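Morning. Coffee machine broken again, so started the prediction first thing and wrote up yesterday's gels while waiting. Chain of 537 residues, entered below exactly as on the submission form.
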Amino acid sequence: MAPVHESLMISDLPLVSRYIDFHYYNPAGQVYVGLWCLWASATVFLALRVWCKLSRHHGLWYDDYILILSWLILMANDIIITVEYATGYSKGNWSEHMHILINTSSDGTVVGQTLTKTAFAVTLLRMTYASTRSKWPWQQAVLWFCIISMNGFMVTKCVFQWAKLCGRHDYQQSYRIQGWCLNYNFSQTYKEVGNIYNIIMDFIFAIFPWFITWPLNLKRAEKVGLCVTLSLGMIIAIITAVRTWWKDTPLMHQHDHWYIWRNAMSEIWYSGEVAGTIIVQCIPVLRPLLKDLHTTITSNRLTTSEATRTIGGTTWRGSTLIDHKKSFPSRTASILSKNEEKKSPGVFELMDIPEEPMATEQRQRRYGYYADAYYEPNSDSSVDLPVQGQRIQTTRTVTVTDKPLISFPTLTCHCTSCKRRSGGIGSYAFVVPKQNVQFQPEFNTPSTISPAGGVHKVFVDNDTGSGEPMQRTMCAECGSPVCIIEASGPDARCLQFGLFADSEGVDLSECKPGLEMFASKRVKWMPEVGEEVKEEA
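Came back before lunch.
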């Protein structure tokens, strides 16, 4: 019960209270509702965070495990406080058993506060991780200083909670640390400094994401949105500051009918700081889920409202005119883009040789995990598209929807596998969500490059720098790379830069990679090109 012990070092009430004849208001019901509603809210957000990561095959990282540990400590602490109020805390006549519970819950609050902040610091460290050539090495130094200093305060405050106080007979119990005592004024000052330091850390962590995110190659609106979601800890910092001010007011030390009620409200504030810090760290991770829901809703609306009509064998869909009557064969597969109307700047067509679609059962049996990665049941078997005054038979269309291609994240990779498959010094791709890409029809069964035939071949690459298998698709006629799908991120499509390098109406000359991976394997004569650089995956 942090508010009592941190402000008064386990309260002014001795082991046998001087106020046993005073009747205190019992706020047990309000405490139960406040504590467990906060815990339930933190549980929901943390569960959604874990589900989002696991469902997208991203896996959990150190910050996730620290948050889960903080959540467990919050739950255990709430149980202890519930037991306190259920066994007579509001009476004011505290036994030695009650004092032990109070000390334990006090330490639980301190540990929960520190671990939740540490989890966010670890998240920021992961974002700022780079080589010694990083442009902002000071960020990592600041974060490590915050982590070490916060946890140092946590350990010492937990130890001081169980120390004897010199000259205070009310703090000489047998359950306290034997052999030494702590000056009372020093202990009070130290705890106040620790509380203020927590507030400072909250403000630092709330501002820090702006230094990390703002230099990234993103649209300003996206930068602001990301920074705001990462800076929601500012709300917790304000709450903590108000709670600290309120706890130090003279009213909190006044032993009247509402003395226990005020301490109970302070406990809810303390629990709210821990639960709130968990919640605000989960919200940024939920942004992709919300964007997926928004995209799904928008796509459904567009599908139902899209003007579709057939005139004389010609089908008009949106801004793409497709004629079914005429078709001229093409010798080789070719990749090109069509300069569409301004309202649909992200539509590209991929021309190649027709192939027979495989049966659903065979596709599922041979594709396995990636069975439906590219399947489009409504794809046309053969259509004819006018391009640059020529008519080329096509059965495959790559369509990038929702926004222009250049607005999607870009990356370049220097791993050995990408060098081998691209035949160059690395790979360069646009990372587009699965729902924003349509392939018609599906690719061939994953196999080795031979035997030849079909529109595209899918090679399952197990010798990757990250150790995770990935699908590399290529044209069966010319061998041009088309798309990469990682097993750890099946919801993303890495569309190769070369697909659109010579597209009409699309200027990719200024598309600098936003992320540079495996920089340690970059050729020596090549400069650093990514906005964010990682030595490994």
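The CA atoms of residues 108 and 221 lie 40 Å apart. Going to sketch it on the whiteboard this afternoon.
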